[in-house]
Specification:
Layout: E1 6-10, H1 15-26, E2 30-35, H2 38-47, E3 54-58, H3 64-78, E4 83-86, H4 101-129, E5 132-136, H5 149-168, E6 174-180, H6 198-209, E7 219-222
Parallel strand pairs: 1-2, 1-4, 2-3, 4-5, 5-6, 6-7
Length: 229
């Protein structure tokens, strides 16, 4: 078995997750790629080296049993998990009357409970490896946005990251929240002017992962130079 570290990424089929997978593969990581879009996930895994370097595991992070199976598949395939990036999530239009209640429910479950489930499933393996747990927060998770339930979910993720850090103190597991500003991802129907590229966020993830064991970068905020707030 290769000595290359193993990174598990949820929400890996597009956007920040896909870009992080590509950066990590270039840095020598073996990859466990999870998302609901099985076909896109399989294509990405194949492009990054196939079964010996990258595996695709279709997963709905809102289902606890699927998170358990995701971790089990990673361990069966590679024997270890060195880092987990809880990145699955999506947004909603601002305004309390502008999305369906069903969309809200799915977003809250994915952004908050999904991240918590993935972390819970992975923690035993990360304790074994003295690994690294990362979560995708947001600038929207550091200040409330008018009419944004998405903002509330990301506030929860930021609180979750700190709660995890405190709970895991002494285990050797490091925790990092990645808080992007305006980024050109499938979140937007049209590319926002001046937005970051997902690869910009992926490099921030790799920066956190590259630190020595005694250094825990707890939060990285990445904004476009032109973003005012």
């Amino acid at each position: 078995m290769s000595d290359s570290p193993v990174l598990l990424i949820t929400g890996a089929s597009s956007g920040i997750g896909e870009a992080t997978a590509r950066e990590a593969a270039a840095a020598g990581y073996r990859l466990v790629l999870a998302a609901r879009r099985a076909e896109a996930l399989a294509e990405l895994a194949a492009s990054l080296g196939g079964q010996r370097r990258a595996i695709a595991v279709p997963c709905d992070v809102t289902e606890w049993e699927q998170n358990e199976q995701l971790v089990a598949t990673a361990l069966d395939s590679f024997g270890q998990i060195d880092a987990v990036f809880c990145n699955a999530g999506f947004g909603a239009a601002r305004g309390w009357l502008n999305e369906t209640p069903e969309h809200w429910r799915a977003m809250v479950l994915t952004n908050v409970l999904g991240a918590a489930y993935t972390a819970r499933a992975a923690i035993p393996a990360l304790k074994e490896s003295r690994g690294h747990l990362l979560l995708t927060g947001s600038i929207a998770g550091r200040r409330p946005l008018p009419g944004s339930l998405y903002s509330a979910t990301k506030h929860a993720v930021h609180a979750m990251g700190e709660a995890l850090r405190a709970d895991l103190n002494g285990t050797g597991i490091r925790t990092t929240i990645i808080a992007p500003g305006m980024t050109d991802t499938p979140f937007f129907d049209n590319r926002p002017s001046g937005a970051l590229d997902p690869a910009d966020i992926a490099r921030a993830v790799m920066f956190a992962l590259s630190q020595p064991e005694h250094v825990d970068v707890n939060e990285i905020v990445v904004r476009p130079t032109a973003q005012e707030t």
